[in-house]
Amino acid sequence: MAGMTLDQLRIFLAVAEHLHFTRAAEELYITQPAVSAAIQNLEQEYGIKLFHRIGRHIEIAEAGKLLQLEAEKILKQVTLTERGLRELNNLQRGELKLGSSLTIGNYWLPSKISEFKSQYPGIEINCTLANTEEICVGTATGLFDLGLVEGEVKASLQNTLEYEIIGSDRLQIVVGQTHPWFEYPKISLTELNQTPWVMREPGSGTQQRFEEALLNWGVNLDELNVILIFNSGEMAKAAVESGVGATGISELMVKKELQLETLRAIQTIDDRKGVAVNVEIVRPFYKLKHRQRFQTGISKAFEQILCKNSGAGVRSHNI
After folding, report:
1. What is the pTM of this model?
2. Residues 318, 162: contact at Cβ < 8 Å?
3. H-type alpha helices, the chain
4. Which of 8, 82, 223, 296 is the most buried (most CB within 10 A)?
5. Exposed, middle or buried: residue 4 (CB in 10 Å: 0-12, 13-18, 19+)?
6. DSSP helix/strand/coil, 75
7. Per-residue pLDDT of the chain (319 residues; tens, 9 = 90+)
8. Relative orientation angle of helices 21-28 and 32-46, to the nearest 10 degrees
9. What is the CB neighbour count within 10 angstroms for residue 77?
10. CA distances (Å), 231 to each of 60, 168, 219, 275, in order?
11. What span, in angstroms and rounded, lies between the C-alpha atoms of 14 and 67?
12. SS3 of 111, please?
């Protein structure tokens, strides 16, 4: 019994995807007879039908559906093994797959990637930006080697991921020039329900931290007049800059606007106990990784750059 080969599995998956022998051949840069022969050899070897030939069309059979699932797993593991072997060349080539929440990815991460690329120019970096919830799920399922978020991890993923603090920023309450608060840069907690609010979508790390801070300050979220919800901090910033309400946003995102005075950061005062105390929202940036999946040398090298300036008090945790 000769057994199936990796080339046969790759050909089979191409046919299963296109349900067409010629298109599969074109994708793989081989001849159509070579594709037909590979499928025929598999079917003869195991005495099964992988595809039903119906006129000039084909449909995947039950045995084909089973092989499709298993072949995808096999080739994925082969890819991971190949990645590990390539790293024996002293990190001269390879790939790093990052997932980052929007604020980190747009404003904090680029300098880290630049530093890494200067040391390892042959490494390809693919970075996906999404909200915190999507990055956590992607890291847990193996879509990313590392995840970078500023929000909390859902309880359902806390046994799968571990995290480490690698930075931080502050959330600022900001308003535009036409907002009444623009001329009064300090407000009390009791005044927060006296303006319209622009918020981020559920699943956003920014929104999670902002809501946590409001609850800790004793602010009833249901009493806030939320008029707009965006899935982008840039959209929320633009809306507020045009005069629509207030928003809680990363200071990294509004640094230029604060300097140009098109936005103003409002200091919040807690005077509930008779003494005015400034309150602020500081949030950590977390590096996420899977507890059990294979971690490449490339990933470890990038972690060193991420953690280099994060401070001596950084700790790893299981979540």
Report:
1. 0.65
2. yes
3. 6-18, 21-28, 32-46, 62-86, 102-103, 109-119, 132-140, 205-216, 233-241, 255-260, 297-308
4. 296
5. middle
6. helix
7. 567 899 999 999 999 999 999 999 999 999 999 999 999 999 999 999 999 988 888 999 999 999 999 999 999 999 888 877 777 667 888 889 999 998 899 999 999 999 999 999 989 999 999 998 999 999 999 999 999 998 778 888 888 999 889 999 999 999 999 999 999 878 999 899 999 999 999 888 889 899 999 999 989 999 999 999 999 899 999 999 999 999 999 999 999 999 999 999 999 998 877 777 888 999 899 999 999 888 888 999 999 999 876 543 333 444 3
8. 110
9. 11
10. 40, 21, 23, 37
11. 12
12. helix
Task: Give the DSSP H or E segment for 173.
Answer: strand 161-176
Quick one: tokens of 77? 């593991």
Show the tokens assigned to 193: 């329900």
Tokens standing for residue 265: 């950061």
Amino acid at 210: F
Q: CB–CB of 44/13 below 8 Å?
A: no
Residues 6+ apart with CB under 8 A from 72: 13
Maximum distance among all alpha carbons in the chain? 85
Pairs from 86-89 (Cβ < 8 Å, separation ≥ 24): 87/296, 87/297, 87/298
List, as one string, the DSSP characters of 262-284.
SEEEEEEEE-TTSS-EEE-EEEE
Give, in degrees to the nearest 5, the angle at Cα 108 between 103 and 110.
Answer: 110
Task: Tell me how far apart the alpha carbons of residues 172 and 176 are, in angstroms, rounded to a whole number.
Answer: 13
Residue 143, SS3?
coil
Q: Is 156 exposed, middle or buried (0-12, 13-18, 19+ CB in 10 A)?
A: exposed
- Helix (H), strand (E) at residue 24: helix 21-28
User: Using an 8 Å Cβ cutoff, are 123 and 93 in contact?
Assistant: yes
Rounded to whole angstroms, what are the CA distances from 305 to 91, 119, 120?
A: 15, 10, 12
Please name which of 299, 253, 257, 211 lies closest in space to residue 102, comparing C-alpha atoms. 253
Two tokens, residue 108: 């904090």
